[in-house]
Amino acid sequence: MALRHLMSPLDFSVEETEKLLDLAADIEKNPEKYSHVCDGKILATLFYEPSTRTRLSFEAAMMNLGGKVLGFHSADSSSATKGESVSDTIRLITCYADICAMRHPKEGAPLVASLKSGIPVINGGDGGHQHPTQTLTDMMTIRSIKGRLDNLKIGLCGDLKFGRTVHSLISSLSRYPGVSFVLISPEELRVPSYVREGMRAKNIPFEEVVKLDETTMAGLDVLYMTRVQKERFFNEADYVRMKDFYILDKEKMSVAPEDMIVLHPLPRVNEISVDVDDDPRACYFRQVQYGVYARMALILTLLEMEVE
Ligand code: NCD
Asked: Does residue 17 have its Cβ closer than 6 Å to ligand 1?
């Protein structure tokens, strides 16, 4: 069998994605059945960019499967500071681990690594490009709470330009029938043209709006809030101008649909007021738990481990 990596959510067909999500749902129901499946296996987490959730979620996922983890959590604490390339680093990681998750500020760095790797490489976020494991997490959350991935109207709000989770989620959900998008962002932070063209090529209905209000939220099944990606701005003044553009608060939630769930990949800054946290429609902390199951299922899938 050829070695498989995960760079973009489209690396898995819809059928493979469904199978993976079914596996994640079974892990949620029967965690003990999976608790020793990866005994003796090692996951390396190579994080050249800060992360709390993604890295710890990967590590928790491998530990829940009985495996072990090693790695680094910043470029400063790796040989990258000495000038080592990701291609060289992955060659040695191949000698230490069975599977690897990599986050990197440069778009395409995990792909470069995968070309020289002897073990499956998972893209844990590459610059403002893609974040496929957050998408698996988001899809599992939507499917578990809404019961479906088709026939959904999804609002994505905030930094749609640099927000890699948004790019991955749009490309993945665009494969399901009856899905439409409302893209809510300031002019300067609209989705990149390749994302817009991708939707057009598939005839996916979408609208681009600036305001987050009752009219924009009407009919939404999901509102996906995002953080303005400070680290990808070229100057501080632009960031400061944009950072509090959207704040979802109790008042806005009072005019939102009754059955609209609110998701956020986290970390949140100001874009969701803490007074929304107790609203039953606020599902972003549940989303974190789904992320662990989704990553457990992904590790098993890429390591080709079947559990009866
Ligand atoms: C996201 C990311 O890193 O792109 N975080 C995450 O992985 N949960 C979103 C963000 O940082 O805003």
From this structure: no
